[in-house]
Amino acid sequence: MLSAARIEQLNKLQNILNIKLTDVELLDVALTHPSFNFEVNNDNAPDYERLEFLGDSVLRLVVSDYLYEKHQDYDEGKLTKIRSYLVSDEFLAKIAFSLTLDEFLNIGEHEQKDGGRKKESINACAMEAVLGAIYKNNGFEYVKEFLLKIYENQNINVNEILFFYNSKELLQQYTQAQNKDLPEYKVTNETGKAHNKTYEVCAFYHGDILGKGIAKTKKEAEKIAALNALKKLKIVEGCANE
Questions:
Q1: For every one of its 242 residues, what pLDDT tens digit does the chain have, with 9 covering 90 and above?
Q2: How far apart are CA 86 and CA 185, in angstroms?
Q3: Which domains are assigned to the chain?
Q4: Which residues are catalytic?
Q5: Closest CA to 19 of 126, 149, 182, 123
Q6: Which terminus of the chain is less hemmed in, N or C, by CB atoms within 10 Å?
């Protein structure tokens, strides 16, 4: 049984999301991290993991259908790369933070002290779980409309997404065309605890920094660094994403 204060919180969130669920308890479950039930010794209470599973499937179907219809000249490879980014933890967490979802999470005290409320992975999972809750309560067309409105506000640049996935290869082609030398990638900074690190990687060429990337994995940071190098070299148009 939810408290009056929690119901008020959830109604506030519904206003932010511009949704209406008749089963507000389902929304509460979608926002409940496993650590919360563990700390109150109620391991049998539901958390967001099952709804996350459902929401992930809904998300992939909506995004796949959207890309299939919008980019009819793209082959399967391009569509897959774009979808991969649009359903990634990075992108979902960005959406979750923009909707202030983190402020409404039920999270254990220990996880809270460890910075869990701001963790990319937790917020991405919660976002998927919320999609699962909306789907279960209101059906597919409702959650599809909700999700597409959010995506339309994200200023998605599909060409940049495609360049991102091929950025290291494109940068290598450019440098080899100059004098056959290859760019080097070096970790220039690490922050965060061992299980939640953030890496800063720079792309060097003949000792000069061409681009910098910051991400949760070294591999992703290298791709961002390469993409920013391509932008700096005017091979890809746009502002550097540092």
A1: 899 999 999 999 999 999 999 999 999 999 999 999 887 767 678 999 999 999 999 999 999 999 999 999 999 999 999 999 999 988 999 999 999 999 999 999 999 998 889 998 899 999 999 999 999 999 999 999 999 999 988 888 888 888 888 899 999 999 999 888 899 999 999 987 777 788 999 999 999 999 999 988 899 899 999 999 999 998 876 443 44
A2: 26
A3: 4-156 (1.10.1520.10), 162-232 (3.30.160.20)
A4: 56, 128
A5: 149
A6: N
